[in-house]
Amino acid sequence: MDETNEAPLSSQLKDALQKTCTRMGVFLEEERAAALCVYIDELARWNRAYNLVGRRVGTQGMIDLCVDAITPLCIKGLFGEEKEVLDIGCGAGMPGIPLYILAGPFPLTLVEPQRKKVTFLRHIRRKMGLEGISIYPGRVEAMARDDDHLNAYETAMARAVTDPLRLARMAEPLLCEGGQLVLFAGEKDAGEIRRYGASLEAKGLRVQATRSTKRLTSRDCYLVQLVKTRPHGMREARSPGR
Question: N or C: which end of the chain has fewer CB within 10 A?
């Protein structure tokens, strides 16, 4: 694309992506940055018509959403060609689609119950040829009752979905042993997850790390990383005398 004809949103987004990737130590390929701009331009266009991420979200809001979405790239080993990745309650595709574009391809399943957002996800998958992406048009609670999805995913993510402790319990059956759950959280929710760490561990999820992403996004956001410690359905071993 000719730089002189580039839309303002794309130009600003590329600058923001480059700064964030540099701070994470991630090399940003020009082709992938351009693809991410296509996605965001299309999301902005659909948002004006169908209110997918909020009608008041302007250019800077779109850039902030995208920069926030790619912050899990600061965690080593989350994504790989053979790793099954789950994005729970992805809305219009955040964070799954930006991560897929920058770090893919990998098998990615997007979980979203709202019809208009599912329609957009199918549109963007077809338009951009994102063949490794599957879409589950329903709620994660229903998915967790389906044997085909139990213990199936190496990485799961959720951003701005319900309360994080409840979300962690809902996601646990879907992760394989050793699988990782990454929750986007504010300061209050991150603190609450730390306080209930022992309760989560009793249910098979250990809090591995809580990372502030302020140096990447200039906002008080956190990534809470949990690891599944045993297969779903296996109870915690009782210590002698208990």
Answer: C
Give yes or no for a contact between 159 and 94, defined as CB atoms under 8 angstroms apart.
yes
pLDDT at 3: 45
Cross-strand bridge partners of residue 226 = 181, 207
Those residues with Cβ within 8 angstroms of residue 21's Cβ, 6 or more apart along the chain or in another chain: 27, 28, 70, 73, 102
Kindly report the pTM of this predicted structure: 0.90
E strand intervals along the chain = 85-88, 108-111, 133-136, 153-159, 175-186, 205-212, 221-228
DSSP-derived secondary structure letter, 157:
E
Report the phi/psi class of residue 204: left, alpha or beta, with left for phi > 0 and alpha for psi in -120 to 50: left
Which amino acid does the sequence have at 32? R
Which tokens in the block code for residue 98?
Answer: 């930006």
* Gap between the Cα atoms of 64 and 17, Å rounded: 10
SS3 141: helix
